Amino acid sequence: MSTVPLDAVHEAAGARMTTFAGTRMPLQYAGIQEEHLAVREHAGLFDVSHMAELRVGGADALAFLRYALLNDAAKLKVGRAHYTMVPNDRGGLVDDAYLYRLDDADWLLVANAANRAAVADRLQDVATGFGDAHVRDVSDAWALLALQGPAAASLLDRHVAADLAATRKNATFATTFDGVAVRLARTGYTGEDGFEIFVPPSDVAPVWHALVGDGVAPCGLGARDTLRLEAGFPLYGHELDGAHDPRCTPFAWVVKDKPFAGDAGWPTEPACPRRLVGVRLAERGIAREGYAVRRPDGPEVGTVTSGTLSPLTRDAIAFAWVDGTLAAPGTALEVDVRGRAVGATVVDLPFFTPDR
Amino acid sequence: MDIPASLRYARTHEWTSELEADVMTVGITDFAQDQLGDVVYVELPEEGARVAAGDAVAVVESVKTASDIYAPVAGTVKAVNADLESAPEAINEEPYGGGWLFRIAPDDASDREALLDADAYRAVCEEES
Q1: Looking at the complex, does the CB of residue A285 fall below 8 Å from at least one CB of chain B?
Q2: Pairing with A96, which of A2, A170, B10, B127 sits 20 to 30 Å away (CA)?
Q3: Residues B87, B55, B65, B28: is their CA dihedral positive or negative?
């Protein structure tokens, strides 16, 4: 088991720790619901230093990334970032990820901690024989904090020299935080405005303490999960995996029309016997991962992939893969909640949109 | 970690009050509610249900997980805490008070003596934490 640079800080602050992808991480501080609402109403700070960072460079880096990833890296100007996916050879994914263009031929790919080796191996394989494109796993060179919530920009503004008001969503740039060299990105995975702060491990503690000292709520991975679910964002290993075609999900927009590594193993047009949908339960109960989805009083037509009680709206919300003919919003379904049939409806994503 | 000396405990983290008017009150312990985190939903047993010791009779759901609650003794469920339907957070706030789950009339009142006392239960919690 490995630890993040702030491990002792989390421990001393009384966080409940859990092991996630082989790394000891804070699951919660004050409680998942309180942390979730702090992010929706003000600001929360997550330590996501377990995430994997891969640096991609070389004269052919752009061509390589266009081929290795499903979104089109050519659409990214320097200083911009986007959500993307790493395809496998079988019509599924190795991971989903965020790609940042730091310079013309200098790129950063942030992938899920659990897939660090798989993504690195996949990119190395694709890069072999590709010309001048090289991939380095630089995960250990970065700590990563995510400051998320409507107050994030005004809180961060006190510490950085850059003009944050002029910073667009998905922008990334190097600056300083109270004199510490950092890279900021106006990104996150909570559905809120916010910034991710890439910082050398030796410098992360003062950044964390400064923001918590400003009244930002320290948050754990528990709230990060309920926030991303409420925002309608998928999680690899739950909604996305090596077997499901992402073109059968609401995230099909990521897959751009161009050749990509492994495309010979992908159907030209996906048949989508099942589609990924959002569902909302009509009655009390919580749809957990693995619960069966049925037609009302009918046969099984799908499976829940993630579910929770929305801390904000108090609705039970979930993602589910269901029969492709039952994916239209408004379709009535049932979720088998431990033997009890609970009515559910297919709904549009996201489950929640910030009213700002 | 609050473990009142007056209660008896199951290894599965239910507490049981002393017998009062032929029924014992059952809830989950302070340790259990803390481990679960925010409780958001509770499924309670049917009043009048006959249960055996160790039967899964209720479910407490937190944000992260659903946990079965087991009958600490055999008997008949005489009452359930319907207030939890609208205020499940009482389990977090008052696990030994307003967060009680159900009342059971034991088939054999001496079964309670077979449950753990506070010291033995504390050892179980220390093992698990």
Answers
A1: yes
A2: A2
A3: positive
